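Suppose a colleague, Dr. K., hands you the sequence of a protein chain of 342 amino acids and asks what its three-dimensional shape might be. Before reaching for any lab equipment, you can write down a predicted structure in token form. Begin with the sequence itself:
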Amino acid sequence: MRKNKTMIAGFLLTVFGLAFCSTGFAEDKKDFNPQQDSGFYYTIKKGDTLWDLSQKFYNSEWDWPGLWELNDDIKNPHRIYPGKRIRIFLKEKPTLKPEIVKVKKTKAKLIPVKVETSFSFSGMDHTGFIRKKALPSLGSIIKEQDGNIMMSTNDIIYIKPSGKGTLIPGRIYQVFTTSPVKEKINNQTFRGVKHLIKAKIKILEHKVTYVTALITKAYRVVRKNDLIMEYYKRDPVLKVEKNPEPIDARLICSEDNNSMINDYQIAFINAGKLKIKPGQIYTILRKNELKDHTLLGFKKKNAIKLENLKSGKLIVLHTEDIASTVMVLSSKYAIYPDDIVN
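The predicted structure, expressed as tokens, is then:
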């Protein structure tokens, strides 16, 4: 499970102007500079959750990862305790300022500006994706300089070029692997190729038959025969669309093929770029079925159809032709491959 805060970067939050003086806010003159910072301190009360506080202060429950990101001393976002003070202000300078509207000739009032919610994820450029066919590689790793089987950040590697492209010294590339996907989704077989990005590398120099490179950042263990691809930088900030048109999609699998998909994990759904776009938030549903109809005294054709259970929420991170990469934002029940996305 990915619970690293650096992997779940904050949301861009709304500025509330003069509302910061409301009841329940605790002032801290030592750390809070009202001339430079937009925000305040809040003392947690019994029953508070980051989810509820996000809705209360930013008018969006989905901003809670940003609230967590701003408070480094909160180790577990699901466990906050009464009496603890947390910060409710932006680390970065807001892009919009509250509008000033004159109420009377001598007075002015700050009116909060409605700011579009944005989702920021620092790991956007190395999330995996599913395509119909495997992406051609520019080369493959043949050895680590010191003979290490498992390679990581700052290791020097040797690459055998594939001849399908040029590995240019000084340029950044990515290490990846592919694996076939064959899943029974909605009573049909889904087929594709999963691409897993493992590291970022910088090409050092060309030799006669090979290329040397430095692993500048490893996200997973790198091994011999791993492949090289172009580096595609993706925008880490997405404009959030909370209520897009409904879709009829299913979860295919998680990035790491977990049998159960948990909060903050990367997964894939069988809806491509023609149906959805990054930043859209959808509901995850679990089928609510009566397993044994005979015990209930009626035939299967007369079975009672129960309403599907809302299991959680996800956000679309990246889209391809046949599938899209998503992140599970929250879960009320266990989430599994083949669960409904709507």
